[in-house]
Amino acid sequence: MLLATASFVTNADEPQYALDRAAMVAQVEEYARFTGDHTGDQTFDKRVLKSMASVQRHEFVPEAQKHFAYQNRPLPIGFGQTISQPYIVALMTNLIEPDRDDVVLEVGTGSGYQAAILSPLVKSVYSIEIIKPLAKQAAARLQRLGFENVTTRLGDGYYGWAEHAPFDAIVVTAAASHVPPSLVRQLRRGGRMVIPVGGRFLTQQLLLVEKSETGEVKTRQIIPVRFVPLTGTH
Ligand code: SAM
Question: Would you say 39 and 87 are in contact if contact means Cβ atoms under 8 Å apart?
């Protein structure tokens, strides 16, 4: 006799996912309190938490990972890449201080989850992914789930997306060896960028880069993080 061993999600799983998601958000809030001395914020903006509580993270992970979708940790999404830890997604979103009228650039679409979290908080999100199958999957997923203000493309995000610049905020979700000058140029005056900077596969520092109204650029270290590297030919 054949036993059905495949794990698949049905509508019957939704109430459990909702409970798991609420527990995940509670843990994100707890981490925010723990790390508040370093990040400068003991609590995250209510709008950011609301978005974390509504986006279905289980839709953004491969079938085999769905049961871990609401654990506060990164998960593999294929091609050696990961969907970031929920706390880190919330922290990066909080650090850019998203506003309804903002135009945001994300470098490293991956699963599309970070873009989905940003979507209800800002006017539009432009997101670039360098790995073709991931870019394709994320574009289809974001469209299917109705994140209409997110536009994606395949490419090297090191150079930004000049046609849509300047950006009110930039979120880089892969670790760079330095802050890409093109991204600094494409950041609007008064804008904010979050980016992990440091060695490949080592611990990096999450940096907050702020451009003042006079164009002066200031950088602050937030916390140590661990991201997959920013690849490309730069
Ligand atoms: N934001 C993603 C999410 O919510 O699932 C997680 C991103 S994962 C940690 C980093 C992503 O950056 C990977 O998908 C990787 O392929 C992509 N990436 C790496 N270098 C890149 C580059 N130069 N331009 C665009 N994407 C890049």
Answer: no
Q: What is the pLDDT of residues 143-169, one digit of tens each?
A: 999 999 999 999 999 999 999 999 999
The rounded Å distance from CA 173 to ligand 1 centre is: 6
Q: Which of 51, 54, 84, 182 is catalytic?
A: 84
Q: What is the pTM of this model?
A: 0.94
3-state SS of 30-84? HHHHHHHHHHCCCCCCHHHHHHHHHCCHHHHCCHHHHHHCCCCCCEEEECCEEEC
User: Domains (ranges, CATH) in the chain?
Assistant: 2-225 (3.40.50.150)
Q: Whose CA is nearest to atom 27 of ligand 1?
A: 108
CB of 105 sitting under 6 A from ligand 1: no
CB-ligand 1 contact for 134 (6 Å cutoff): yes
Tens digit of pLDDT for each residue in 13-60?
Answer: 888 999 999 999 999 999 999 999 989 889 999 999 999 999 999 999
Our answer on whether the CB atom of 85 is closer than 6 Å to any ligand 1 atom is no
Cα–ligand 1 centroid distance for 11 (angstroms): 30
pLDDT for 14 equals: 84
